[in-house]
Amino acid sequence: MDSELKQVPGFQFFDHVAIAVRGGELEQHVNAYKTLGFTEVHREDVLGTDQVREVLLQIGDGPNLIQLLEPLSPESPVARQIEKSGGRGGFAHIALRVADIQAAYDYMKRNGFKLIDAAPRKGSRGTTVFFVHPKTTDKAAFGYLIEVVQEGASHA
To answer: Do 9 and 98 contact (CB within 8 A), yes or no?
Structure first.
């Protein structure tokens, strides 16, 4: 069993921690992280169902990132999250990197995880992603959103 878990779903490391930022405050947050020595490595408007402006900041020379998410519309899930938290930004989700997104998806589905996406889908920066519901399984609700990420071919 232990060897199977090391292979599938094949989690490699924490890809990023996502932080929701209120509209109009993104640059202030970016600058604060830069003051701490973080480096901006990516910026993108993610449209479709996400409706966010994201900025990724690298922690040192490692693979771990902070993802700042500013809603672009009231329909954005991030806007709804900020509204639910009384208008405050803060922790949005944690993302785990995998080598094989489809294998991870199939494994988690087979093992009773509550997956939000019907299948892995296109994410930002050329990645493929899917999300796991905060009510993670029938027996364990982690209480926070999880994103599973496979790096794009150009970033491998």
So the answer is: yes
| Bridge partner residues of 74 (DSSP) | none
Question: What's the predicted TM-score (pTM) here?
Answer: 0.86
10-residue mean pLDDT series, the chain (156 residues): 60 94 96 96 92 95 94 93 90 95 95 96 93 94 95 61
Distance CA 20, CA 2 (A): 35
Sign of CA dihedral 70, 156, 121, 143: negative
Cα dist from 87 to 22, 29, 83, whole Å? 8, 16, 5
User: Selecting from 3.55.40.20, 3.40.50.1360, 3.10.180.10, 3.40.50.300, what CATH number does the domain 2-151 have?
Assistant: 3.10.180.10
68 near 47, Cβ under 8 Å? no
